[in-house]
Fold this sequence. Notes:
- The chain is an alpha/beta fold.
- It has 19 helices and 27 strands.
Amino acid sequence: MCGIVGYIGSREAYPILIKGLKRLEYRGYDSAGVAMLQDGNITLIKEKGKVSDLEGLASSSNKSGSLGIGHTRWATHGPPNQVNAHPHASQSGDIVLIHNGIIENYATIKSVLTSKGYIFRSDTDTEVLVMLIEEIQKNEKCDIAKAVRLALNEVTGAYAIAVFSKKEPDVLIGARKGSPLILGIGEKEFFLASDASPVIEYTKKVVYINDEEMVVLQRNGEFELKTIQNERKTPYIQELELKLEAIEKGGYEHFMLKEIHEQPKSIYDSVRGRVDIENGKIKLGGLEEYENRIMNSRRIIIVACGTSWHAGLLAEYMIEDLARANVEVEYASEFRYRNPVIDKEDIIIAISQSGETADTLAAIEMAKKQGCLILGICNVVGSSIPRASDAGCYTHAGPEIGVASTKAFTSQVSVLFLVALWIAENKGTLSKSRIQEYLTELELIPSKIETILSETESQIKAIAKEYKDASNFLYLGRGYNFPAALEGALKLKEISYIHAEGYPAAEMKHGPIALIDDEMPVVFLVNNSSAHEKTISNVQEVAARKGQVIAIANKGDKVIAGMAKHVIEIPETEDALSPILASIPLQLLSYYIAIERGCNVDQPRNLAKSVTVE
Ligand code: M6R
């Protein structure tokens, strides 16, 4: 949660900070703030709400300064108001700091500092850290870099911070543990940010700061990377591959709509180079080194959260169905605390778009200690989960900025489908010709998505108008369509705030059927699979109770046409791939319902893109 950005150099910091914060706003939008240093004075401006609210407040202030830090907050400690907004200043006002993460022992430190006369203005854990730095600097009579380092040795929890002191106007400090931080290196200028998006238009040279590392950045272009134990490190400078267009809306009204429409390309990019149809082979370079261990494992345990967990559930269906390997899927947050029986015979697959989800990371760390092999399936290159994994595959969906995951999900499913086929190929559970059929069909998915987008979007807009005032929705599907139903329901909840439940269609009669009346929209996923007839029976059960059936079905399905109020037609595909196609109308439906309800689609209330707190 929270986005941080920092700048030191010779340009004006404020425009860089504001632009960066707008790009990081997906990480939190409860409040925003900036601090700039000019002629020995710190200008601190912060406001409740979005970065645009901050800009409004700042419009009449002096914002000069070529050293500055900025923050966009997702509230953890204390309500989202102006006082709790970052940056936070020390008691004297000499030091300012921004923070992403949670200082777990803040209460203990706060009470010690309070007894020494420190007066806290906010409810945050962050303010405790900046006060602690000041106290240490006072006692040690040291420079700001040493005070920060010593303070970080006293805190427990997670942090990415940027901090400066008005007494050292040519120094900016950044540090991380558990929350992401990137250093951008320009010509005698430096950028700090939670991800590469604020940095990309100024420099492509970056260093991914590791846990318990800090950087001391000097205005003259020199910098030092060291651990918080004071051990010097050699920075590994990497070239960013990210393109600016990838993080802009490109003519779409919302990132979410852009990302829905990007799916033919994001799936193509996820699959490209990994498929050899002629020889019926799957090339997953990231996994090859561990092929034996994976093939001989007792169990694959998938850990993930939210949408990535839904991709994980689909992976369970695919790997068990196609590769006959034993799979379990766990919510990362439950897995890490329920004392599971795991050992070195088990393989963990951690799925995450951001690669920063705290629960998933913690589950990985716990499984590592038990000797499990960790495979990461992540989208953000260089993020914490791939770095904590032994091996894995990137999904290559490109930056996903809309808080509601769309293209990252379908890319995850595509890559996990390849993982299932790769295991099947190695275990010999599928014939070469069957693998070739699957791969051929996978290659057709992007064009089938294009068909869905061009043929169904206006119909879905009209359906959205009709159901925009519904209070509840049910999403039902069987087999591979059940995880897709869960994902459809999550999308609607997240961005339109309508209560929605996903259920296995056959489970409906064990409870949820009681909810059905003539006002209940029920979205059925009914593709032509072995479960088609059974699902049709469930549709009849809903129709008999006057539920409003919206069916997502294959083209030309005459049976469903006679029963459903609306049928959204999608092309046929392999059963295992049908959730990818079915997800497209589900994403569009939730998008257009949210638009009809006037909701902020890209920044839904209370949510953040990257959940870096437990
Ligand atoms: O970055 P991750 O994939 O690890 O994130 C996991 C969930 O927080 C995420 O999928 C969340 O559920 C999204 N808002 C879904 O749209």
